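In this section we walk through a basic example: taking a raw amino acid sequence and producing a predicted 3D structure, encoded as discrete structure tokens. The instruction is simple. Fold the sequence below.
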Amino acid sequence: MRNDTATASAVLALTGGTANVRHVTHCLTRLRLTVAEPAAVDEEALRALPGVLGVIGAGTPSLQVVLGPGVVDTVTAEVERQLAAGVGAVEMSKPTDPDTAAASPTPQKGPLAAALRRIANVFVPLIPALIGCGILAGINGLLTNAGWLTGLTPALAAIASGFMALIAVFVGYQTAKEFGGTPILGGAVAAVIVYPGVAKVTAFGVHLSPGQGGVLGALAAALLATRIEKWCRGRLPGALDVLLTPTVTVLVAGLATLYGLMYAAGAVATAIGTGANWLLTTTGAFAGLILGGLFLPLVMLGLHQALIPIHTTLIEQQGYTVLLPLLAMAGAGQVGGALAVYVRLRHDTTLRTTIRSALPAGLLGVGEPLIYGVSLPLGRPFVTACVGGAAGGAFVGFFAMLGEKVGATAIGPSGWALFPLLTGNQGPAPAIAIYAGGLLTAYAIGFAATLAFGFPRGTARSTAPSATDRTPVGPA
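The resulting token sequence is shown next.
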């Protein structure tokens, strides 16, 4: 029986205790911890915990513990509860000798990886609302097209669209929170972007449009507001700080947003939409091949969340993101590869049990259980799974070259879970058919490639290495 309380206690103990944990959050599958002293983390013991599927970022302040869908929600809540209660006190932390620490500096992520992580931290908390509103938008579209429940569809449209209409405010709030500002000031400055009255403001000789710049503008506006707020707080005495800091922050950042950031972010957002359309229309099959083939390594490194601003920008502009269905093919390739491992290593009962338990999540687009439990430990099947993803991406991209685009109205799910969110320039039915064809292609090619090239020659079915050994078979 699963014991999330025990798991949370063990994770805290092995990451240096509550005194070492500075920040806690989670995404669909990963517990994300910011630790003060990375050297206090016992990576090997953490990986060996029952229920832990993988560990990313060991040796850096940003630690990700892969737990899987559902489990991560309850474990995160328990970790937060124990942190608030002070369970797992300081003595759990490994003492760090100052001389040793000086001689062996703590490894840090590069500036690009750190920036991508922080941007991901801004958008990850928004994913549940994006999923819920996206599914409602898809249901509303089906009802509208079928002419059913006409009295209900306006209400569904309002519920589904309300969040997206104000998403800039939420992005501003989260940005200020992530970068050390006052969250409500970040939201207040970002609210300027969606305020209808901006249509009366002229910048660069043209009138602004409400929503111009979207989430990118909100991100930039809140970042600027945070910098201004910090500058003010370091220079104003307490009595004046209460009045002047929020006033100056909102005024200066608001004016900069109206007369610069909205225009610049709008130009960038337009370029993203134009570039995505050009890429698929001109090089759709090749683009799908690359995107579908390289997405699994991004997931493995935890960098895939950095694509959320691009997806969100496309959804704001076009009503759907054309990139997500292509990227979703990576997970399908891995499902095919896992099935091939299941067939080939028929005497490895431990590995086959792992595959049976992880396969339902894989079919629904949650790839971490199969990545860390099956394909990555074996080595070659991870590469052949990428080949399957590339084939599925090329299939979907080929139809984009023919004028049949496939998009998702929200981000978060993939695999079979993406079907309710699918639409395209020709409507949902063709999009669903093309996406299904891409999944079948990725399953088939991932299965065939893994069966043919995923194992060293002479690997015996009865003596094949188990995924629990955590020993890669070797390069393909």
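Looking at the output, two observations stand out. The beta strands are 21-26, 30-35, 54-56, 62-66, 202-203, 206-207, 407-408, 422-423. Residues 238-301 form the longest helix (64 residues). In the next section we compare this with other chains.
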